[in-house]
Specification:
Shape: globular
Helix content: 40-55%
Distance between the termini: 73 Å
Largest sheet: 7 strands, parallel
Strand content: 15-25%
Structural class: alpha/beta
Number of helices: 26
Number of strands: 22
Length: 723
DNA sequence: GATGACGGTCTTTTT
DNA sequence: GACCGTCATC
């Protein structure tokens, strides 16, 4: 066993695998065998150190990664049961803990988990309550403020007390109402799952001690993308054993907008003083052409824990840069390339087209359909976000948690059953009056107090009967699938769907898909099955989308979602200023650097062939504009790039012309000086701390009142100088 | 109360 | 160029 397990590892990997006591930080470059190390470390602990599988917890970035981990382990350790390893995303693990122990901090085990759509709906209600006009302020702004506060563990009351500007006060009020509404609905949002788990650990030392005793080893993957709460969660679970191993790569940190905090890596070394640091620097994945290009690119980042990666792989084929006329041209160039490479022995699943924004997928889908190229689209219109799926799930949620008004109101008139706005308002008022949920108000309906038309009462009575019937079914000992069938038949949902003129077949098929997913829970106890099923539904990651299962197809995927994946042939289209780097991420140095890391992640997914492209014209919103080639292309040495001009109409563009640097032309003098008070549209007010000349431009360092220190480019950031 | 037409907004990335 | 919310009409 031992020889099998350890002979195929290099020196650093071996160190990371066998270092079996105390804190361990593994800095793992792309393709350096990170997953291999995690799998082997777990296998080593189990087979050599007699650690039981259920004493090991592995936190992964997606649920799929956690399943694959268990699969690989089962292959490695025949006699042990790898499925007993505690593994999942931070959110799914926290959710399970709260379902079991949440009652000690006042969280009932049947809480609902609200996704983004539910959250938006709650924010809208909160805005209404505090009289904030949602036409003036986009609800998602509040949502990101709330999420930001939660992932930094800022309490809503405290938040309210410390906010000074008018908008901050507004946001603080929305936050406060939002929390109340979540509470009323007996619901938790994604951030709550982690936040409350941390609270649970603090408030219930016994629960924590028990967990610490049971979890002897903790492993955290993709550590560079954890936020403050997630790190705290991990720290709390690490008992006196200090057996925590975190694996990550600062150069692949691409989720700061989701409040991931790179400082966690630095803090880890402070918090765990005696930690061992292992660096995996040999890349086994890519050709040296690809790796060298990636290293040249990432070396342009200044905020970096330098960590050069090297490979002994052969040079490989050159990286190609294609120039297209527009996005359709770009898509057909890539389609032709795929066809050609297929004749050379590649198969469809070897290809991935990786782009910055989901909207880019359309041109490729059209080209692929036209050319009969099979493809799978990862995470775009997610399965679980489809209307018909959310409707059915709403019914299940009402059964799970009768306080879930949000779900109740979603389907109270779906399919249409004559319960209109007035009737709903009357019912809601009645519920409010009695401090009750809408569902309870309906089930205990006293129609004499409702001041509405007879037909309204009749419709309510009808729905009451439907609900009672469904609830009755849920109380019987039947399976989840039979409950689902019952809901479909009693509510008349099938007929409702089939009545629709467009896409009704597809919608019905989706429900069939949902039914078969529910079937996976049929061997669990019915009352536990509902919680487990709804948890899975709420906490799925993009790769878990059932539609992504098909094989023998080209993968269409966002750059963010490619993290951790690899493909023999990778296409990165849309290398244009405003797209990569994205226009919304161009006004600070930090943001540009994160965009560069995103490109770096994309490049390093490629095993043997890499194709970059940009198109001279692109249509956004329906208007076509001339583009500028991405500045990141210039970060790749010319000798590694083969410029290809496929389009016969663009012969004149054949030479390798560097795009004119936007900043060179302007030759700016600093119109902003140190000490100036400035205002930024996004970061608010602040004071200029420093100005640094940067190739015809100035980097302005501003200390913002709310958002802290930011490095901005004078020509890009629209800074307004205040008196 | 249901349905359809219109007009305004929007797109970054996601657990 | 799609989607959502709002409004007018049946």
């Amino acid at each position: 066993m031992k020889s099998d397990l350890l002979t195929k590892l290099n020196k650093q990997q071996l160190l990371a695998v066998t270092n079996d006591s105390g804190p361990l930080l593994v800095i793992a470059g792309p393709g350096s065998g990170k997953t291999r190390v995690i799998v082997h470390r777990v296998a080593f602990l189990i087979s050599e150190k007699q650690v039981k599988p259920d004493e090991i917890m592995v936190v992964t970035f997606t649920n799929k990664a956690s399943r694959e981990l268990k699969d690989r382990l089962n292959g490695l350790l025949g006699q042990y049961d790898a499925s007993r390893i505690i593994s999942g995303t931070f959110h799914s693990i926290a959710s399970k803990m709260l379902r079991i122990n949440g009652d000690s901090i006042g969280i009932a085990n049947n809480f609902s988990i609200y996704d983004r759509e539910d959250q938006i709906s709650i924010v809208r209600q909160a805005c209404e309550l505090v009289e904030v006009d949602t036409k003036r302020y986009n609800p998602s702004i509040f949502l990101s403020i709330i999420s930001n506060a939660k992932s930094k563990m800022i309490d809503p009351i405290l938040n309210q007390a410390t906010s000074d500007s008018l908008f901050d006060k507004l946001a603080a009020n929305v936050y406060l109402e939002y929390e109340k509404l979540l509470h009323d609905n007996q619901a938790l949002d994604f951030d709550d799952l982690l936040l409350r788990a941390c609270t649970l650990f603090e408030k219930s030392p016994l629960v924590l001690a028990d967990l610490q005793n049971r979890i002897k080893y903790l492993l955290v993957d993709e550590f560079q993308d954890t936020n403050f709460v997630q790190y705290k969660f991990a720290k709390q679970l690490t008992g006196d054993s200090q057996n925590i191993c975190v694996v990550g790569d600062p150069d692949q940190s691409i989720y700061s907008w989701r409040n991931a905090d790179l400082r966690n890596i630095l803090n880890f070394q402070k918090d765990f003083k005696n930690c061992t640091v292992v660096k995996l620097v040999e890349n086994y994945r890519s050709t040296s052409n690809i790796l060298n290009a990636s290293q040249a690119l990432i070396s342009q980042n200044s905020n970096r824990i330098t960590n050069d990666i090297e490979t002994y792989n052969p040079e490989g084929t050159p990286i190609e840069l294609h120039v297209a006329e527009n996005e359709y041209d770009e898509a057909s160039i890539i389609t032709e390339k795929i066809k050609k490479l297929r004749l050379e022995g590649f198969s469809y699943e070897n290809f991935a087209v990786t782009y910055r924004v989901n909207a880019q997928s359309r041109a490729f889908e059209e080209a692929f359909v036209r050319n009969g190229v099979p493809y799978k689209l990862i995470g775009a219109l997610k399965f679980y976000q489809r209307r018909e799926i959310k409707d059915i799930i709403a019914y299940l949620r009402i059964i799970q948690n009768s306080n879930d008004d949000n779900s109740m109101l979603r389907v109270i008139n779906v399919p249409p059953r004559g319960i209109g706005e007035r009737t709903v308002t009357a019912l809601k008022n009645l519920a409010n009056l009695n401090g009750d949920s809408v569902c309870h108000a309906l089930l205990n309906l006293d129609e004499t107090v409702l001041n509405i038309h007879k037909t309204g009462i009749k419709s309510l009575k009808n729905f009451q009967g439907i609900l009672n019937e469904v609830i009755e079914e849920s109380l019987s000992d039947h399976s989840l699938t039979s409950l689902l069938d019952k809901i479909l038949s009693i509510t008349g949902y099938r007929e409702h769907i089939l009545r629709e003129l467009e896409g009704s077949e597809e919608r019905w098929e989706n429900i069939g898909e949902l039914r078969s997913i529910a079937g996976q829970f049929d061997d669990i106890q019915p009352n536990e099955a509902l919680n487990a099923f709804l948890d899975q539904v709420a906490l799925v990651t993009a790769e878990d989308d059932p539609s992504s299962d098909s094989n023998e197809s080209v993968t269409l995927i966002t750059l963010h979602q490619t993290k951790g994946l690899e493909f023999p042939v990778v296409f990165i289209p849309g290398l244009e200023e405003g797209l990569l780097p994205h226009s919304r991420s161009m006004d600070s140095f930090d943001e540009i650097e994160e965009e560069r890391r995103l490109f770096y992640v994309g490049i390093t997914r490629a095993i043997s062939n890499l194709y970059l492209s940009w198109s001279k014209y692109r249509t956004i919103f329906g208007t076509t504009t001339r583009t500028i080639r991405s500045q990141f292309v210039d970060n790749i040495p010319e000798n590694l790039l083969k410029i290809v001009n496929t389009n016969k109409f663009q012969l004149e563009e054949r030479s390798f012309t560097k795009t004119t640097n936007l900043f060179d032309q302007q030759n700016l003098l600093p119109t902003i000086n140190e000490g100036d008070k400035v205002e930024h549209f996004k970061f608010g007010k602040g004071v200029v701390v420093q100005t640094i000349p940067r190739s015809g431009d100035f980097e302005i360092v501003v200390a913002f009142k709310v958002n802290g220190i930011k490095h901005l480019l004078s020509s890009v950031a629209k800074l307004k100088v205040l008196e």
